[in-house]
Amino acid sequence: MKHKVYSILIALLLILPSISQAKNAESIVFYYNDIDSVRELMNFERVVVTPSLITNKQIETLHKAGTQVFAYLSVGEFDGEILPRQLQGKSPLINVNWQSHVMDLSAPEWQAYLNNEATSLMSKGFDGLFLDTLDSYTLFAKNETTKRQQQKSLAHILTEFHQLKSKPKLIFNRGFEVVHQLGFKPEALVAESLYHRYDPLSNSYHDVIATDTEWLTGKLNDVKQKGIEAIVIDYLPGSNRDAQQRAAQRLLDEGYTPYISDGMLYEIGVSTVIPVTKRVLGFYDSQFGGMTTSQCHRMMSMPFEYKGYVPECHDVRQTQFDRIDLTRYAAIFLWLESSSYQQTPALTQWLDSTIGHKQILFINALPTDQALLSKLGIAQRGTLSGKISITKGNEWLKGYYPASFSELETHSQWQSTDIAVSSLIEAKDVDGKQTTLMFNAPWGGAILSPYPVMSLANSSETWLLDPFRLIKRLIDLPDIPAADATTESGLRIVTSHVDGDGFPSKAWFPGKPYTAEVLLKHVFKPYPLPQTVSVIEGEVGKRGLYPKESAAMEAVAREIFALPNIELASHTFSHPFFWDLSKNIKEKQYGDHLPIPGYTVDYHNEIIGSVDYINKNLAPKGKDVKLILWSGKADPKEDILAIAEQANILNVNGGNTYVVRGDNNFTQVSPTITWYPTAVHVYAPVLNENLYTNLWTEHHDGYSRAVETFEILGSPRRLKTISIYYHMYSGAYPASLKGLLDVYDWAMKQDATPLYLSEYAERARTLYETGIAKTLDGRWQVTTSGIRSIRLPNQLGYPDSTQIAGWNAGPDGKYLILNQPRTTFTTRDTQPAGIRLKSANGQLLNWRNNNGKIAWSVKSHMPLKLEISGASTCSVVSGDALYQSKVDRQTLRLTSKKAGVLSGALRCQL
C-alpha cells in the first residue's frame, strides 16, 4: 500500500508542473479560412494559418501586436489534386477523407520538396511551421519494417527543418513515435480530438469514445513529461460558444493548451482566451450609390465604432449570403428600401434563417415577404394618409427636428402581431388609423420611414432621434473596452495640418507676401505645436502652373519645412478634384484638376511623383514626406489607396465632420476611417475652414468657430481629436488669419497631447485592427497593432492591472494608457488604491512601476508635463530633471522645460 501511495505521489509530482505550465500557456489559434483582417487572430499569442491565405502586411500587423505566426505545412501528404512531375510515383495512396496524396517520406524528391517549401515559407516572415500529417504514413506502412523506415525518414525531415538557417519554431501535429528519436524538442506537440471529434464526411460532431481518450491521454502525458507543451484541438461548432469555453477550461485544467473550434477550422475558436465578437454586419444597396456614400457607412459606422465595434457595410447585390460566418458578428443592421428586399430574394432567405441567432436592426423599411414578416411578429394592415401626427414616443424625439409626413403620399400601417414585439414610437392619421414607426423585439428592432434621418431643403440631412440611444435600445450590444483614436496618454490628441492650396496667392498684407509667408511668420514659427504642412507640386514646382515664380516659392517652402516643428506632406501634383474612378461626374465646378498645360491626371504621379519632388527639392536633410493629403472630394477607393499603401505613405483627408452650435447634427460626423482589406483611408477628424466661411463667401474669420466643433465633439462623448485643419489661403486676409490664430490660441490652453498628423494617422488606421478578448479566468485582454488608448466605459467600472501605465477619467469613461501590445486587466466597482500615471502630454515609451520605483520614458513635442495619481511625493532617482507641484490631494504634476525623448527613474510614495 505504501509503495502504491508513493507511486501516486510521484505521478502527481510529474503531472502538476505540466498543469501549472498549461495554465500559463500561450494562447493559440488554428485558422485555415480566408483572412480579410487579423483583428480576431491578434487576440492569440500564436496563430497557425494556411500560408497562401495571409499577406505579408497581415503578418507584419500580427508581429506588431506581439503575435507569432506559424505556417501550415503538410509533411505526410500533398494537398494538390495533381502531383508535380518530380513527385509522381512517390505517393502510395489517396487519403479519401481529404482527397490528398499520402507521400512516401523516404523519397528524396519529397524530402527536397519539403525543404524548399519550408525555406520559402520562412523567407516570407513566418515565425515557425506547424507540421501536419506526421503520421499519415501509417495509412500504408502496415509492417514494422516499413514503419521504422518511414519513422526514420520523418525524423530526418524534422531535423532538417530544425537546422534551417531561419531557425523556425516547430509545432508538430502528433508524431508521438518519432519525438524520442530527435536531438531537439519541438515548440509544442498537437493532438486532435481528445474529447470531441468532427466527421468531415457527415459534417457532424461526436464525443470521442473513452478508450480512444484514454490512449491519447497516455501519449500526451508522455509528451508533457519530456518537457514539451501539449496542445489539444477539440471540435465543437462555433454556434455553441459556451460549450467551446467549457471544453477549453477542462483541457486547461488537465494541463493542456486548449483550442476548440469547428471541424474545418474555418471559424475563430476558443483557446485560453475567448475573442469578443465585435464586428457588426451592415447592408446597403449599390443601386443607390457606393459604400462610402451609403447611410450604412455615413450614418451608422460612427456610433458603432464609438462603442468599440467594427462596422462592415456590404452590398446586398454582391453578397454571397451562404458564405456569411455569423459567429464573426455581434449584430446585423440593414438600411434599405422596400425594393431592395423585393429584388434580392437571397437576402430574404438568409434573414429567415438568421432571425433569433443574432440581433437585427431594420432601418427605413421592412422586408416585404409575408412569411418573414410573420416570423418577425409584424404585419402591414393597410395605409395611412393625410395629416399624420405622433401619438407615442415623444420622449425619443424631444430636441430633434420634427419628422415630415407628406400628405401627398400614403404610408404603410405597421402593427405588432406578437405580444413580445412592442412599439416605441407610434403615429396616427386623420381617420385615427395607428401605425408603429419603431419596434422593439426579442430579435432586435426596427425604425421605419420617415425615421431615423430626414433630408432637408438645403441638401443636408438631420437625425430625428439620438442614434446612440437607438442602437442601445434596439440591439443592445455588450459594453466592451473600446479602441480609441482620440486620446494619447490620457489626454485628447491635438493635431494641425495644412493643405497646400493657395501657396502662390498674394495676401492682403503690406508687401503682398505669399499666403505661405504669412503663415510662416504668424503661425508656423510662433506656435510650437507639431504641424503638418503640405504643398501642391503643380503650384510650387517648375513643372507646374508658375515656373517663373517657382524658385521664390520653393525657397519659402524650404524655410517652412526646415522648422523643427513642421512635418512634411504632399497635397498631390495637380490637385485632382475626383479620386473615385467608379463615379461618372457630370457637373465639374472646378474641372478635373489644376489646368497644368498638357497634363493628364496620372494617380501614381499625383502621389509618388509629388512625394519624390518634395523629398528631392524641398525637404531638409533627415526629413521625408510622411503623408499624402487627399485633394478635392478626397474620396479615393481601395485601388488608389493602394498606391500610397505600397509606398508606405500614410494618408489623411476626406470625411464629413462639421458641427457648430445650432448645427450639431450627428449626420455630419463621419467614422474615423474607411477600412479595406488592403488599405485604410483615414478621414480628417474635422473638416477645414471652407465650411466655416461658406466657401469664403462670408465670415472670413469664421474658422474661429472650429472651437465650438472641438467642444461639441469632446463632450459628453469624445468623438474626435482637436484637429486644426485649413489651407494656405487662410493667410490671405487679416480676418481669416485672426480666425486661425483664435483657434491656435485656444488649442494651446488645452490639456492635450500634441501629435503630428502622421502619428495620429498611424493610430487611426489600426483602429479596427485591435483585439478585444476575455481570458478563461474572466480578465479582459486588449491587443493592439497601433492604438495606444482604450476607453473603458463607465458601466464597466475601474481597471485593475499592473500591465497598464494608468488611466485618466474622461467625459465618457476611463482612458487607459497602454504600455505594451497585449494587456490584461480586471475591472472592479471601486477605484483601486495605488500609484498610476494619470496623463502625459506626449507618447509613452516606457512605464514600469515596481512598488513605487518607476522607470519612465516619454516622447513629447512640447515641454513635458506628467501627472501622477495616488502619490504624495515623488523624487527623481536618475535621468531628466523634473519639477514637482501639487494639482490636488490625489495628483502630482511633474514638468520639464525640455521636449523630445525624456526618461529617468522616480521614487514615489503613497
UniProtKB/TrEMBL annotation:
Domain Glycoside-hydrolase family GH114 TIM-barrel stretches = 55-263
Please give the InterPro entries that the UniProt record associates with this protein. Aldolase_TIM, GH, GH114_TIM-barrel, UCP029570
According to UniProt, the name of this protein is RNA-binding protein
Signal peptide start and end residues: 1-22
One matching Pfam family, short form? Glyco_hydro_114
Q: Which CDD domains does the annotation name?
A: CE4_PelA_like_C (cd10922)
Keywords on record = Signal
